[in-house]
Amino acid sequence: MARRLELHPDRLFPADPTTRRIARDLYSGVADAPIVSPHGHTDAGWFAGNQPWTDATSLLLAPDHYLYRMLYSQGIALDALAIPDKGGVPATDPRAAWALFAANYHLFRGTPSRLWLDHVFAEVFGFDVALEPSSADLYFDTIAEKLATDAFRPRALFDRFRIDFLATTEGAQDDLGAHHRIRESGWNGRVVTTYRPDGVVDVEHEAFVPAMTRFAELTGEDVYDWRGYLAAHRKRRADFRAAGATATDHGHPTAATANLSTAECETLFAKVTRGDWTPADAELFRAQMLTEMAGMSAEDGMVMQIHPGSFRNHNAGLFASHGRDKGADIPTRTDYVHALKPLLDRHGNSTDLSIILFTLDESTYARELAPLAGHYPCLKLGPSWWFHDSPEGMRRFREATTETAGFYNTVGFNDDTRAFLSIPARHDVARRVDCGFLAQLVVEHRIADWEAADLAHELTSGLVRRAYRIDQPSPLAAAA
Amino acid sequence: MARRLELHPDRLFPADPTTRRIARDLYSGVADAPIVSPHGHTDAGWFAGNQPWTDATSLLLAPDHYLYRMLYSQGIALDALAIPDKGGVPATDPRAAWALFAANYHLFRGTPSRLWLDHVFAEVFGFDVALEPSSADLYFDTIAEKLATDAFRPRALFDRFRIDFLATTEGAQDDLGAHHRIRESGWNGRVVTTYRPDGVVDVEHEAFVPAMTRFAELTGEDVYDWRGYLAAHRKRRADFRAAGATATDHGHPTAATANLSTAECETLFAKVTRGDWTPADAELFRAQMLTEMAGMSAEDGMVMQIHPGSFRNHNAGLFASHGRDKGADIPTRTDYVHALKPLLDRHGNSTDLSIILFTLDESTYARELAPLAGHYPCLKLGPSWWFHDSPEGMRRFREATTETAGFYNTVGFNDDTRAFLSIPARHDVARRVDCGFLAQLVVEHRIADWEAADLAHELTSGLVRRAYRIDQPSPLAAAA
Amino acid sequence: MARRLELHPDRLFPADPTTRRIARDLYSGVADAPIVSPHGHTDAGWFAGNQPWTDATSLLLAPDHYLYRMLYSQGIALDALAIPDKGGVPATDPRAAWALFAANYHLFRGTPSRLWLDHVFAEVFGFDVALEPSSADLYFDTIAEKLATDAFRPRALFDRFRIDFLATTEGAQDDLGAHHRIRESGWNGRVVTTYRPDGVVDVEHEAFVPAMTRFAELTGEDVYDWRGYLAAHRKRRADFRAAGATATDHGHPTAATANLSTAECETLFAKVTRGDWTPADAELFRAQMLTEMAGMSAEDGMVMQIHPGSFRNHNAGLFASHGRDKGADIPTRTDYVHALKPLLDRHGNSTDLSIILFTLDESTYARELAPLAGHYPCLKLGPSWWFHDSPEGMRRFREATTETAGFYNTVGFNDDTRAFLSIPARHDVARRVDCGFLAQLVVEHRIADWEAADLAHELTSGLVRRAYRIDQPSPLAAAA
């Protein structure tokens, strides 16, 4: 018989009883606050179509690279987990894949995936037994049954999760059809897009050429001319704003920026777009485009997010067989101080521009990012990201950044997930960890209790709403 | 009505009651120990002239880049804070600037500035209400009144703060007039200087040429000849020792050192002094000069401090409008292992030489600095510096260095401040955090209680006195 | 009279009483588990000859660079500690050296050496007074007396320490005579070797040429021909496996790997072996050899350990006078993401290959190593190493790696020591710190208590046995 599954009400709070009591009080004030999710990768089509999901494997396991990367690291073949390769979804029985996952669920002990999944199992699906081999079928069957009900369709869960704002991410070459269908449906859930132009900026991406073709079609611009290319970005940014976007996002290998003259830009652009480039050219072009995007953000008010430092598709064999995004992205050492200077030399003292910086290199928190954000008016710090979106990661983020940048140069939490059902779990973890950190400051008499309560609300709601400008009058609202 | 301001007697001690009790006991043994401040940036002129300060804004806000960098980061103009630009002090009402600061005091929650200021407000000025908009005028008026009294003149506060030793920092081109006036006045406060030759070593500094001119005038040497230049350093080091200095200080962009032949030095020196240099030449010259200074320290016994790794004046726009030291210095990744090798190859096994290393790159604590200091007889570790001079920063320093370098290769606390009134606050924070760390070791049975008590005294008094050689017979004492 | 020496039963457990109680319970389940020591540097000759050791200085002080590096850093001459230089052991009275050590024992407060030594003093030798000047002679005499008894001979201590498996490390040019003598003696202690080919791989090592000569003699291969050289490695790997080895070890300056063609390998090999190489050639050759060794490990099943990132013999003066391994090795910043890619491109998805990665650069734990090990099936994380083999170092290792790599991509503890008597102390520290970390997870409701108990056994026994394949049928067992 399977062991009990129970979410302890004090989970993630500090062990010391006094600190825990303070943390619990702080948490009680924000536990039920609506969710604001300004950065993530859910599929807008879910909310446009509102079709039911089908089974545990395809909903919870197959799309979640956090899960299958760990299983793969222990020698389990991706095929056996029903992970699609370049030929499509393998002919693996979803129930068998789920059973294999259940048999290896112990691998996740101590990881945030385990915390998130147990929350999904207990809170979303109502399980009171733990996932293990003996309960794998119960899980698989129960989940399938529930998913077939209206209460588990995307929009119903969106409401049940009390999501106030949810941003997805689309490329510059996306027609935003799903977002348009959401609007046209009359549904009032606030699901908006984010402008992510990497596909038409990164000439090293294998799909750069078709992305540029689509970019041209959608804008009617001569995107192989530097001025036309910039004009196309401006048009698409306006399209995205009209679809509710308040932000852009940029996922580059490094944080490099550049500040070239127009003539230099034209020469570089001609070189990279005719395919005659070196890796250094490609990097310089991405660098210049960050500065161009910052300039456009200063014009149109879109908040700019920079997510650098991931070595994508590190596993050559797996990339060949399975393609991108298969859990083989590895962080690298990242410089910000020298990298951002060209952009900052041009736009750094703007109070219209807002740039949110992320990192996968925690050694930059106290050394570079907090000092930069604690000085430049245009810079703020995104929350601990990806591999660091975890209790220890969040704690290290607060400990390393608060003393130099304060709380007010941070922007609340991002769930950054494609695992829609885990969104409440992830926000819950962040709220608990933040309240634990604040409780520590209170018990050490570094801030007063009333300040901690105020900060708990800021970290949950205030900072994110202001940083992502989600309550500012938008073109969408103006048009409504 | 403003909220109460109260410094809790247990502030900064660990939450666990047993650990806290041990920390409190350890702290009680060192809380009142005299202050030894071997490295800082107070103005020797204050103690020479002993003139009263005038108001809260010009004393506490305008000179403190920790404060206005945070306010600037949130979009507040420096003009509105009465921060001088290249044209001088702006015509901003000091009271209005103070009110703006008070209205934004919440930005400092969780920062060391907040801890230091509350200590200054409560302990130095006797406030029992917190700084907030409603109390801004009360603060401004009360501070002005108190500053007008004799009890708040520099020397009176020096005595009240129980300062036993205070080092300022002057350039090689400084005539040490203020220090001479202190001596001549017959006042017995021990305020000494520190030899900081960066102005005549860093050819990239915009004031290098006038500094060299003054250097020549003060020494009578041909400072554009390599031998004359070295002789001038020797003369000025002797001048500084005569004014009580026990140490030198070197603030370079990197920790690079070099070990060139005399012929190579002459060639390089000729190149950099005639203005015909590349950035690499400038860097190599600074590198060579660290090794030269180490050689002179081995001769004359002055303790050498190396403070590398700050990217100075990162904000180009602000540097153009406001000049240096406006809160825009950003730490960079710093290498020590390769950088220091040339110097160590020449002087590393000297037991006469003492070099104190600092860093803004905490990733070097356990990886490079503790292993270096735990081996080389000439190397010791300076305390956590600048952005890391904070409760979390100090805790990380001890956790990362103690296991490899021990306590005895560290040198006690530096306040490193130009904010004179905050000196007791800063030493108090350091003593509390160190006692908390020691209490943790005791409660985990890693050291005995009597050892912790001994170490608390060492960290407060013993190590700093020995490391900075402040009780060794000095030329000053010998002449007296 | 000397103070009491007492090992507190709760040492190293967290301060919070609830957490401590959980840690104590977890520890009680693993405290007496047999020791598995898969990586270390004890002398196989001790177990072959089983001769008694003689005195405290030559057994405990002179071979332990952790100890004399700290003393040297405080200005104590190595001669006075009886540390051998290139001329041999200095004519220092061992008793006087021991007294000098005792007089400076306070330098080790807060270091792991202190914890290990006190354990050795109390548990191995039965002292109940602390080491200090007044007890130095008592220590010296008592230790000498005990060492003269049969109960303190190497094999008796091996049994008393309940060591189940002990790996030493030998070079490719070693004839494994001591290991053969152990087997021939009929003693049933499982002491095995590890294949460390650095001496015939690192052309920058001063003894490369004689090592190659011996390598040729032992294998009968033409080791100056690329194919012969590889064949010689295969022969020696077989020899080592026959002597019980389950693993290889590679201590390179960096983690660089390469993936050259056979023709490129031949050209490079010819260049480096005829002495006509640049440092870049030497580095490329080491890099290629890691990939070759990985290929052989995939063939023969030997687990591959990579220990990169130490700048060996940093102190030029000391290297000249005293030679290698005198406490002057300093860690450097280490890259894994780019460095390992060539090897991983060739072998990364093998499930036969197992590579255990170590680091001296803790900034790579969360940024590079945990993400790599949490994806690649062939990669696992070695425990916190060398300077980080300490309570804080182990805690940082778990905090930084667990959330991304989990526990199951780690391999238990390595004592990595030449200080045989400290082996139980080191394993005890590791078990206590791991149980404290697990207790923290339990008290924060991140794992259940039964999971923690299971993990405590895994971290003590299960993971190390599987990772080092010590229970797999070996050629040795097959031959028996």
What report would you give on this structure?
The structure is a homotrimer of 480-residue chains. With 480 residues, the first copy, chain A, is α/β, with parallel strands linked by helices. Chain A has 2 domains: 52-152, uronate isomerase, domain 2, chain A; 155-479, Metal-dependent hydrolases (TIM Barrel). Chain A is built from 20 helices and 11 strands. Chain A has helices at 17-30, 44-49, 56-61, 65-73, 94-103, 112-124, 136-147, 154-160, 177-184, 208-219, 226-242, 262-273, 279-300, 316-322, 341-347, 363-373, 391-405, 423-443, 449-467, 475-479; strands at 35-37, 163-167, 170-171, 191-192, 195-196, 247-250, 303-306, 310-311, 330-331, 355-357, 379-381. In chain A, strands 6-7-10-11 form a 4-stranded parallel β-sheet, with helices on one face. In chain A, helix 16 links the parallel strand 10 and strand 11 (379-381). In chain A, helix 16 runs parallel beside helix 17 (391-405), helix 17 (391-405) crosses helix 18 and helix 18 runs antiparallel to helix 19 (449-467). Chain A is globular, with a radius of gyration of 23 Å. The termini of chain A are far apart. Chains in contact: A-B, A-C, B-C. Chains A and B meet through helix 15, helix 16, helix 17, helix 18 and helix 19 of A and helix 4, helix 6, helix 14, strand 9 and helix 17 of B.
